[in-house]
Amino acid sequence: MTTRRIGVIMNGVTGRMGLNQHLIRSIVAIRKQGGVALPDGERVMPDPILVGRNEAKLRAVADSYGIDRVSTDLDACLRDDEDSVYFDATLTTTRAEHVRRAIAAGKHVYCEKPLATTTADAMELVRLARARGVKNGVVQDKLFLPGVRKLKRLVASGFFGRILSVRGEFGYWVFEGDWGQPAQRPSWNYRREEGGGIIVDMFAHWRYVLDHTFGDVVAVQCLGATHIPERVDERGRRYEATADDAAYATFVLRNTGDGSNIVAQFNSSWTTRVYRDELLQIQVDGTLGSAVAGLRECRAQHRVNTPRPVWNPDVPNPFDFYADWHDVPDNAEFDNAFKVQWEMYLRHVAADEPFTHDFFEGAKGVQLAELGLQSWAERRWLDVPALDLAPLDGAAARTTTRDAKRPAAATH
């Protein structure tokens, strides 16, 4: 059995997400298992080079995980024909320029979301990648979570009948950093001028989860908020939080199955304390049944198991509403969601296997974030138009998710 090497330039993997999910739990794990199997019986083995600004930090990470190569010179890496893939997990505000340079160098590109800070920039990257003929992809990890995969299985089976609504709750309390508990997220997440904000961060996720599980998002109404106006950064300094830390959104979806409308409500918050089974919970209600999915688990209730409560606040509740829900079985082994998508992308590059999670899909997430910010600023519903590859006008090109009209440090 032949093993083929594939060089991967990994930029930004000393940060939290890049290190834990993309390097340790994906690339390092793939290397430990002997690479990725290809349809012809061969295997492809990623050979990473870690790129960043701090050589000592890069070397420490590389030494910890058996990686030989590091560099602080991105341009030199992009010139090296031995490495054919570029991966980007850098700051949101720098990603589009890095990706643009990688495409110009003829590299295949895989990157974190959001793809860019503007829909115009994201669509430019789509056009550039297609014109250059490079394979491209954006991380859409939540589609490969066990709970969401089980939910997708229920949808495909027709379990729900006609789907009526979807309700999502995501988030947790991110400590302010001012009383002994350090914040779990970096300070740039709360600075809109640095690409921060939960709308920019999470609406890309909700776009692909909704599109690929239920139907295309066709309208959005969003209210954002900066509930905590001041926080403490990594150096112990107080700073003004200029980005939204919570968003309350309603989406209209066009049901892939029958074309009917589905109402989806999603609350996203870094200022909520969790009283549910998992950090993400999605409930789907249909005419024939309902389901509640988290990151790993999924429970369902068919209409024949649905209790018949009657409103009467004057007597104790006679129902155990949880008892009539049943676990959806795994029926499969679930690997790390990021690793699953990495393996798919490597097979796409090495064996030309299909890969639907490309830059065009990533641009849809950027679009929904922009429209969410606009809806908040203008306090109204907005349609979500279909994207195409026609050149965008100058006005669209000048609007960014950092500078888009939005209430400055709004508290409501």
3D architecture notes:
- By secondary structure, this protein is an alpha/beta fold.
- The protein contains 10 helices and 18 strands.
- A 9-stranded mixed sheet has the order 17-16-15-14-8-13-12-9-18.
List the helices and strands and how they pair.
Layout: E1 3-11, H1 16-32, E2 36-37, E3 43-51, H2 55-64, E4 69-71, H3 74-79, E5 83-88, H4 92-104, E6 108-111, H5 119-132, E7 136-138, H6 146-157, E8 163-171, H7 198-213, E9 215-225, E10 230-232, E11 238-240, E12 246-255, E13 261-269, E14 280-286, E15 289-293, E16 298-302, E17 326-327, H8 337-351, H9 359-378, E18 382-383, H10 394-398
Parallel strand pairs: 1-3, 1-5, 3-4, 5-6, 6-7, 8-13
Antiparallel strand pairs: 2-3, 8-14, 9-12, 9-18, 10-11, 12-13, 14-15, 15-16, 16-17
Helix pairs in contact: 1-8, 4-5, 5-9, 7-9
Summary keywords:
nine-stranded mixed beta sheet; disordered C terminus; Dihydrodipicolinate Reductase, domain 2; Rossmann fold; 412 residues; alpha/beta; 2 domains; globular; 10 helices
| CATH fold category name of the largest domain | Dihydrodipicolinate Reductase, domain 2
How does the major sheet shape up? 9 strands, mixed
Strand order of the largest sheet: 17-16-15-14-8-13-12-9-18
Gyration radius over CA: 22 Å
Number of strands: 18
When the domains are counted, the total is 2
CATH architecture of the largest domain: 2-Layer Sandwich
Helix and strand succession?
EHEEHEHEHEHEHEHEEEEEEEEEHHEH
